[in-house]
Amino acid sequence: MFIIEFIAAFFTLLCVILTTQRNIFSWVIGIIAICLYAILFYNEKLYADFSLQIIFGIQSIMGYIQWNKNKENYNPYITKVEKLNINQRLRWIFPIIILYIIIAYLFDNYTDASLPYIDSLVAVLSLVANYFLIKRKIENWYIWIFVDVIYVGLFLYKGLILSSILYFILFILAIKGYKQWYKNLKQTTNDIK
User: Fold this and answer.
1) What is the Rg, in whole angstroms, of the alpha carbon atoms belonging to the chain?
2) pTM of structure
3) Tally of domains within the chain
């Protein structure tokens, strides 16, 4: 499993680096990482995260299509950035809580999942963060920063040291991604005014 974890970590890192740069090909690279992590998570009995990889695969296809439709005029491989308004943000709170409760309950009561409540929390938040990423919303980075911190601890606990190191790096990249996307959003907003 170490070789699979190493290759998955490499492709995940490359994917996130490309994502911070708003590069459309991040979605293609991400699919490779998704397949490898699906194998790893299934083996570690992290079923929520395993299931998440299937959804991430579908989201990656959607993300590539969405980003391809919303390219910057100056570069055909770079997508535009947008921001949620306060009402859009508030509308997400209740569905996130309900989805978390349902998934955590199911994995706790009907599987031999390891750490079903933490695993379900990061799975649900990752789904939402990835959805916001597909929609090019800057808020995806807030969630990824939070999720990456939890994943560092989860993977340390499970003995997945390489993945824990990877998610620490992803935490740093998420902060960088937020800063880069914010700079682009601010520049775009200033250009409109």
Assistant:
1) 17
2) 0.85
3) 1
